[in-house]
Task: structure prediction
Amino acid sequence: MIPAQRQSGFTLIEIMLVLVIMGLVSAYVVVNAFGTNPSDKLKTEAQRFHAIATMASDFAVLNQLQFGLVIDDKRNSYHFVTLDDNDNWIPVEQNKAFTKRELDSDYALKLQLDGFEWETEDSLFSDNALFDETLSVSSDGVQIGKEEDIPPPPPQILFLSSGDITEFTLTFEFFDAQLGNETFSVSSQGYLPLNHDLTAADKERP
Result:
């Protein structure tokens, strides 16, 4: 079990986090006020992730916590979790920047781990699956569990108190028949700083 340190007041990293959030909010307002270019908005999302992921690693090191990142490519979202005193992954709620972020339907998230593309596993709940989403057998009225009782999936990416980070590449994609397809990416080689490619790259539609 990894003990979590309890602190009172604001740490330097928390103050820095507030400043980063303020900067990201300002950038978001500028993009929405002076332009509706989907590429600009996607770039802002990638910049936001780069900043927040960097802060998550720093926060984990300075507060000796274990952080994780859960990416759901089916719901086009991501959120941070932390390891509690019972070694369970729970959502990070003390900082809004680490809560769930969901992208517009025009965008897509693609995660690569060790060079292989990650796809959220949901085959147990597909149309032809053995169980429905409540994991219940309705024919005989026997309940074998509820969806809310199912433990959440573990994070694909770890930000450890040692400073180690799971090696990954997260690509932000935009698909449009007229404007073309563009991608921005953020990646890790196992430690800070995170690498980023925020220059729009055209990508042919498969």
